[in-house]
Amino acid sequence: MSGVQHPVESGRNGGHVSSRSWWIYRGTGRPLTDIRLGDILPAPPGWRDFDGGPVLPPVPAENAESDRRLGVVGRATPRQDAHDIDMINTALLLRRPLLVTGRPGIGKSTLAYLVARELGLGRVLHWGITSRSTLRSGLYEYDAIGRAQASLGRGRSGLPVPPQATGSGPEEGTGGARIGDFVRLGPLGTALLPYELPRVLLIDELDKSDIDLPSDLLHVLENGSYDVPELVRARHQEGAARVFTDDPDQTVTVTDGRVKCRAFPFIVITSNGERQFPPAFLRRCVRLDVSPPREDQLAAMIAAHFRDQGGRPDAMIRAFMERSRENGGLATDQLLNAVFLRTAGVREDDEAWGELLDALWRELSGAP
Length: 368
Fold this sequence. Notes:
Elements: E1 8-10, E2 16-18, H1 37-40, H2 63-70, H3 82-94, E3 98-101, H4 110-119, E4 125-128, H5 135-139, E5 140-142, H6 144-151, E6 183-185, H7 187-191, E7 200-204, H8 213-223, E8 225-227, H9 229-233, H10 235-238, E9 240-244, E10 251-255, E11 258-260, E12 266-271, H11 279-283, E13 286-289, H12 295-305, H13 314-326, H14 332-343, H15 353-360
Parallel strand pairs: 3-12, 3-13, 4-7, 7-12
Antiparallel strand pairs: 1-2, 5-6, 8-11, 9-10
Helix pairs in contact: 2-4
């Protein structure tokens, strides 16, 4: 680990502690450059060791999306609490999901992008949860209607056709279309493919889901594998199937309808605390309750997003924090919106400025 820097990190209450020697992720905001993650990431515990294969090539980072969420690399990085970094590294080392709770808009989902950027883990997979989300929608989609139309010679209804799987001819009666042409892996399903290093998966706002989804996730999160029944049924006719993944324009080969991970993904599950999760689900997660950002963290966030904001806006940050306390909590992007208006030429001594802040910094409870 000699090539890893040991920066000073902020403590739980705003103090400073030295970086822990066992940390893999250090919260520097800068990608690893002189060391490879695979060389410093310890082997998983025996009960979290998976052997899926063959190993797939890494997926490149989506830098534009990371910059949009985190700001440009090298400008500034909000210093995370040492306790938060402890929990992130605990989840990373144990190969367990990280369940992140806290009020809306304080940056829970950005943890996934911070880890992916620093550790070089490529594009972040994002599964946004709604009340209609199911385990299957996270794992894969099967276009049964499109396949039926293809079998009748009436064309397709949506998915593009990937390259045909090698080794067998077209399925009889389907006009050359194979069942794999109608399967697309979802974010969770893609994260569980056999990559050498963990993929980063953000499961956003799980507390919005149907009551059964957290329990439905248990088997997949415990075993790191799943079956695609449509491919299992066709394995004797087609063998390996080439299917699309959740990464743009990417395809993979699935053999015998089974997907099994090699490196268990780094999964960040966010919750606004609007419901309780089953004990069996909580037992399988590392839990992190994120505190509202401090003044120095807000200042660093602004510096990361704005090259020149006319000096550090301390007065605006303090006003925002006071308003946030009064209104039961505001989202950090409400502060960014106000800073942007100031950089666009709206002066704080303008007679409209107070009204603009009142409109931007309205409470999030839905009250008029």
